[in-house]
Amino acid sequence: xxxxxxxxxxxxxxxxxxxxxxxxxxxxxxxxxxxxxxxxxxxxxxxxxxxxxxxxxxxxxxxxxxxxxxxxxxxxxxxxxxxxxxxxxxxxxxxxxxxxxxxxxxxxxxxxxxxxxxxxxxxxxxxxxxxxxxxxxxxxxxxxxxxxxxxxxxxxxxxxxxxxxxxxxxxxxxxxxxxxxxxxxxxxxxxxxxxxxxxxxxxxxxxxxxxxxxxxxxxxxxxxxxxxxxxxxxxxxxxxxxxxxxxxxxxxxxxxxxxxxxxxxxxxxxxxxxxxxxxxxxxxxxxxxxxxxxxxxxxxxxxxxxxxxxxxxxxxxxxxxxxxxxxxxxxxxxxxxxxxxxxxxxxxxxxxxxxxxxxxxxxxxxxxxxxxxxxxxxxxxxxxxxxxxxxxxxxxxxxxxxxxxxxxxxxxxxxxxxxxxxxxxxxxxxxxxxxxxxxxxxxxxxxxxxxxxxxxxxxxxxxxxxxxxxxxxxxxxxxxxxxxxxxxxx
Length: 490
Description:
The protein is of the alpha/beta class.
């Protein structure tokens, strides 16, 4: 049926439109759920259309693989806790990069093996068995890859392998299976040597032909570079890393889509790569880092110089006094961080915020772009709790308002509210834009204890004269605030 390929391409075009429209709707929390559905329908259309391709082989195996993937994703998606969402994003993103690398590996290995086995065109045919010999030569001979296809295939495999191994390290760090940072002398030089060696193998594959040993060395070096590039990353930089590898995966998928000649894969990869690149730029800006520093710098490494000593002591407050302070305030800002996610306190925090609003207090939620362990982590948690979007303010919008806010309630945030980022050139986070909660009239910080944050940096805010510490688990402390507020009304 000659019309089937045309129908498949039309389905790919429809899928591409659904991808783009879905991504557009994801730009607003109000329409994000619908955007996810639209993009999911687009993926379903693309998959079903691919099964209809006339030259599709091994449909049974492909269907089985898709079914296994759907079941595993459905099961893990429903079971994973919100605190583990960054780990899930990291490992799924890594799987996308690994799939792109696997496509490149299959294509390169197939051409390397068939190239070695193929009978030369000049080989004489035996007259007595010429038909069988002709069929054998036709089956064994594989046309050489066009240069453009070969280049994109090798680059896609390189980028996908880096994204895969790097994302696995990111997953292990977020899961707590590895130390936050692993640094050794000369690390940047060694990383550069590994990258140059991988690129040299890539150039050799493109220019001198495909051989199995060279392909193996290429992939080993690419995987090693992904590992070594991610090992020195500190926890405070993890949102940048996740968005960076997301961009890598999209780019690798687009390249391999070109190798396969599949329009749907090309478009999907380009959309993911473009969105990931833009997100990486925004995250890097929020961390006050350049893209080159994100790619080749030692994330979270200490800045030059000695960090300033912090004088004073942390001053505790109990829940009853904190509730009274906020109950009679005119304006309150709530600043969530990863500690809120760990304690799963978002629902109790919103319950407390609603109680304040019922008393006439103006409440806003202040979100730093890299709060949590992935881009948008706090927005997801607050949306889960039912916080209206018009109560959520980005850092750039609310920073100017902090001097006029009576009380800032910080729950689980550390590095993104640390004033040393503005005052101490010796601090590892110096220059990073922060939420200026120190400018508020009063600050209350909910924290488990006197330990440091995920980046291991002491926070001068906790010792400030206008700051009081409410020690305890985030959910329990928020519950105490709710109870104390109700007691005031009684």
